[in-house]
Amino acid sequence: MKSARFGTKSLLFLTALVGGYLAWSLPFEPSFEFGQYNPSSYVDEDGRTIHCYQVELKNRSFSPVWILANQFDQPVTTFCQNYTEPSDGLDLNRLTQFHDRWIRLPASGTLMLEIGAPTLQANCIAGLLVSDWRGRLKEYWSPPSIPPKHPAFP
Fold first, then answer.
1. How far apart are CA 139 and CA 127, in angstroms?
2. Under a CB-based contact definition with an 8 Å cutoff, are residues 113 and 57 in contact?
């Protein structure tokens, strides 16, 4: 009987090598679901009442993602009232100056976001800067929506 041309160890190594290459070369396409805007408010450390909207963010990706956040764990950049998406994307220098940590959001995990309440009803979008386990960065923008009127602003 003839011996195998490749040994079992060689085939396992080759399979692992090809699998690793395929996993590394997959594109990073995060997917999120934004919930409804729920009016809310809280009192900050200076005793001021801050009006905001709470929005649930759900990771629809098949793997965990990391979201860039500031010292208050708020990862959202918002644009309201006649917004225009920046043509050159998020300003990474400005973001990394004010945002200094990453929040891990597991696959199918949820995160509650607090978005500042505009005094007038307007179209709003939320922008996130996310990363995957390979360190690839991607911007993600919520679909435009009009939040309900906040009770703090009659």
1. 7
2. yes
- Per-residue burial over 78-112, b if 16 or more Cβ lie within 10 Å, else e, is bbbeeeeeeeeebeeeebeeebeeeeebeeeeebe
Q: Please tell me which residue, 91 or 15, carries the higher pLDDT value.
A: 15
DSSP codes, 44-105: -TTS-EEEEEEEEEEE-SSS-EEEEEETTS---EEEESS----TT---HHHHHHHEEEEEEE
- The answer, as to whether pTM is greater than 0.70, is no
- How far are the Cα atoms of 40, 91, 103 from residue 140, in angstroms, in the given order? 24, 13, 15
